[in-house]
Design a protein that fits this description.
Helices cover 34% and strands 18% of the residues. By secondary structure, the protein is an alpha+beta fold.
């Protein structure tokens, strides 16, 4: 049965708070979108601080005209960004089943809660502003300040006893992470008076993922990348990885769009049937980037490419790249979701050079000009990052990664395997140093 739902879409504008932008219509069937329509409000279009919700699918140049979702997408990129990935969908679906209501695609868009990622909100009308109690969530704690041990207890109960047996007093902390992307268990919390994402161990982890991600992110920071403030908390139940949210600055909310949306890719397509590339991201920066930071952001993107190669991070799909979007253009967001894959496949998700997804410095060098870099500059960047990553084991040990996990990680960082992949002599020389 086809279902149609409507919502007023709001966005947070600095110095103005939440402002109505227009009307969203969603038509779906069987929990999947069939089409969407959006129309900007005339008042919003005339607002001096107005920004497009999505510069690719919903540019302000459409003015008050009705905009239909592209037929090949059936949705708008920004609305797909509003939907949670596996973890959030799981929590919302479990909440809905307990309340005996059917969860719909529309619910995934609007049920993010007050602390949802980004600057958007949804409501039934223009009079009362965004609502934070759309079903199936229908609950949102006023304050995200939380006892860390209590939070770990919630995830421990979920892992050992299932969602329906989690204490109702602490279940709200599971719901709080439902707007965050990714498949891993997480929550949105306040820590030391700042908003953070808390990430937890999953039963399927090969190693202690929170500790390894903390070590990986701080290693990237040592290599000079733009990394948010991160920390590792140890409780009686588990280690918890905390990453400070970059979509908040004091009371202001920042509009964040995924690389998928900014590139204009078909939502949900991450694999070979629509293979995208780092070069697509470079072109996006050229097209939409803040004019004063285009060179800086493209160089930062190249550094991330080198780090993903050296860490064997095969999860570099377009939704793991973010852009902070405002009236001056886009900025590449700080680095996130940087963690090694145990797979020996040695291929990235995105194409990176002439040899497609091959995970090698040689391949990264082959099209460095897209990043605004000549060969000498690109080699210098690679060499400086390799120098830091050659000391990974001591750094990971300092981050309290266990001896057992270090043993498993040595295969990921095996330099002999990496050297064998290099065909560019300069790249091979860099990998052989240290």
């Amino acid at each position: 049965m086809r279902i149609r739902n409507k919502a007023i879409v709001y966005i947070w504008l600095p110095s103005h708070g939440f402002v109505s932008t227009g009307v969203l219509l969603v038509e779906e069937e069987g929990g999947q979108p069939l089409s969407m329509r959006f129309q900007y409000d005339k008042e919003y279009f005339e607002h001096p601080e107005a920004i497009s919700l999505d510069p690719v699918d919903l540019p302000l140049s459409h003015m008050e005209n009705i905009i239909d979702s592209p037929p090949e997408k059936r949705t708008f990129g920004v609305m797909f960004d509003c939907c949670p990935d596996n973890w959030g969908q799981k929590i919302l679906s479990l909440t809905a089943s307990e309340k005996r209501v059917e969860v719909r695609y529309f619910d995934f868009i609007v049920s993010g809660g007050f602390h949802r990622i980004g600057a958007m909100g949804f409501g039934p009308d223009r009079k009362h502003g965004p609502r934070w109690d759309f079903y199936p969530l229908q609950e949102d704690n006023d304050s995200q300040a939380v006892d860390i041990d209590l939070l770990a207890r919630a995830f421990n109960q979920l892992e050992n006893h299932g969602f329906h047996n989690v204490d109702h007093n602490i279940r709200k902390y599971l719901n709080s992470g439902s707007s965050v992307g990714g498949a891993r268990p997480k929550a949105l919390i306040e820590h030391k008076n700042k908003p953070h994402i808390a990430k937890f161990k999953s039963p399927d982890d090969i190693w202690d993922e929170p500790t390894v991600e903390y070590a990986s992110m701080t290693l990237a920071a040592k290599a000079g990348l733009n990394v948010p403030s991160v920390s590792l908390l140890k409780t009686q139940k588990a280690n918890i990885f905390l990453i400070e949210r970059f979509d908040r600055e004091n009371e202001d909310r920042k509009h964040v769009l995924s690389g998928m949306t900014m590139v204009g890719a078909k939502p949900g397509i991450m694999f070979i049937n629509e293979r995208h590339s780092y070069q697509d991201l470079c072109l996006t920066i050229d097209r939409f980037g803040h004019k004063d930071f285009i060179k800086e952001d493209k160089e930062e993107l190249y550094k991330r490419l080198i780090c993903n190669i050296l860490l064997n991070n095969e999860d570099d799909h377009l939704r793991n790249f973010g852009f902070i979007w405002d009236k001056d253009g886009s900025r590449l967001s700080p680095f996130y979701d940087f963690t090694p894959s145990p797979s020996p496949a040695r291929h990235l998700m995105l194409n990176l050079g002439k040899n497609k997804t091959e995970m090698s410095l040689s391949n990264a060098l082959s099209q460095c000009e897209y990043f605004g870099l000549d060969r000498e500059k690109a080699l210098g960047i690679a060499e400086s990052i390799v120098e830091v990553f050659n000391r990974w084991e001591g750094h990971f040990a300092d981050c309290q990664v266990t001896a057992r996990d270090l043993s498993a990680l040595r295969m990921v960082f095996d330099r002999n395997i990496r050297i064998d992949l290099e065909y560019d002599q300069d790249a091979k020389k860099i990998m052989q140093t240290g």
